[in-house]
Amino acid sequence: MGKRWIEGELRGTGDEQDKLDADEIAAMRKRRGQDILLPTAPITPEAPKLELVRFTSETKKALEREGYVVHELTGQSIASLKDQGRGFRSTWHRYPDFEALASRLSEVAINPEELFLQRSGNKTLSEQQRLIAAHSAMLSLRYPGTEAILGEAPDYIEIAFKHLDATKQYLFGKDFGFNFTRTNTRVEGGVASLGLFDPGGGWHVGSWGADVRSGGLRVAPLVVPVVES
Predict the structure, then answer these.
(1) Which mean pLDDT values do the consecutive 10-residue runs of the chain (229 residues) have?
(2) SS3 92
(3) Dihedral in degrees, nearest 10, Cα atoms 218, 222, 228, 229
(4) Surface-to-core class of residue 129, CB atoms within 10 Å of its CB (0-12 exposed, 13-18 middle, 19+ buried)
């Protein structure tokens, strides 16, 4: 688009001042011997919208028949949940980078009757990760297209609040022995762990070394749809 087009538009208005402006533009074009192109704003492509990954309807029904509860994780972070008035009893995690970590965009299944893997306490992180991998291998045979993972800290945090809203049950709270789950989120000094979830103060976010063993420090597998690469 150039000033020739603007000149024509101005002449078509019938306004005397617009006609004078059009004459000035015409004179400028004549002196240059060519039209004057106007700058155009660059077109910025829209970022692709990420879609929430879901189980197939058949898999979801099969999981629910076996006692699993399916929740949607929507990219929430500690920061966004705190803005919504959600409670956190601990303070060490109040660092912008950690609080900004977002949960996955995916349906996630948990089994409240078997929240923690059996015999996953008193083990190091690497030993617990091997238990998760073995559990995932067995699970994928029973529910094709799924896998069990050790989730990131924001995954567990959002799913517990979602579960509380839906069932009034505090995962990792009194009914679960106030035990902690390790997560896959590395922090200074070790790995983020979560537990002691109750109505009095909310979540306790802690940090344990990867080699620390404790009976109350276990792993809670999350069942998620396999994402095709």
Answers:
(1) 52 63 66 54 51 96 97 91 74 70 96 96 96 96 96 94 93 90 90 87 83 95 89
(2) coil
(3) -40
(4) middle
